Amino acid sequence: MDDILAGRNPVREALRAGRPLHKILMAFPLEGRAISEILALARSQGVPVQRVDRSVLDRVAGARHQGVVALAAARSYVELEDLLSLAREKGEPPFLIMLDQVEDPHNLGAILRSAEAAGAHGIIIPRRRTAGLTPAVARAAAGALEYLPVARVTNLSQAIVKLKKEGLWVIGAEGDGTKDAFTSDFTVPLVLVLGSEGRGLSSLVRSHCDFIVRLPMRGRINSLNVAAAATVLMYEVVRQRYCCQV
Q1: Fewest CB within a 10 Å sphere: which of 10, 43, 97, 159?
Q2: Residue-wise over 141-168: b if at least 16 C-beta within 10 A, else e?
Q3: Which of 43, 20, 2 is nearest to 139 (CA)?
């Protein structure tokens, strides 16, 4: 990931999570609750804050910085095994999200935010033809990137084979799925696989899924944005695992 965090919430969450920051650049004058918290956290952690003109922030991070930019240590991707280890440490059946060529950074960020809120153990993305962990993704994730690990793999199909050997069910999501998502069993160890915004799942990845689920569409629109669909599916996992226990 680039070593620039832009926006009040991403910078604040990085400080809350104890992420190493080299310096914070902040426009002047700037006030508000979030700004006060950033200044207090930076002071307690010994992170220098430098007041600069907004034009400096525009050059460093583009226009959408909300007056705050942090120069951070690079955010590293984790290994696939790390996601499984996290589930074991929590004593929970693995709950992973795999994204097949999701290229829009806002969609990726929104999925990261929902996944963290839903208690997923991590996200899996391919090295090529996908949005990476860019500042735009970090802004859209609104701080979730500080808490949710992301594994980047060379080949999604090979990753699926590994996950199956670990006992995970691989459940794809498409509009033409053969099973209704709300009647499928999401209490098992699983990885939910979602495709790109326009093309859906690639044929090879789809062929490796154990089965494909669909969301019931009652209106005239026959599909949801990938981030919206991901959120609905993730919260069906939450509902089945944590809200319906007897």
Answers
A1: 43
A2: bbbbbbebbbbbbeebeebbeebeeeeb
A3: 2
Question: What HEC string does 142-155 produce?
Answer: CCHHHCCCEEEECC
Close Cβ partners of 1 (under 8 Å, ≥ 6 residues apart):
74, 75, 76, 132, 133, 134, 138
Mean pLDDT, the chain, as a whole number? 90
Tokens of 198: 């326009």
Structure tokens at 147: 């808490």
pLDDT, tens only, 174-219: 988 999 999 999 999 999 999 987 788 999 999 999 999 999 988 8
Element (H, E) at 125: strand 122-126
For CA atoms 99, 202, 206, 239, the dihedral sign is positive
User: Helix (H) and strand (E) counts for the chain?
Assistant: 9, 11
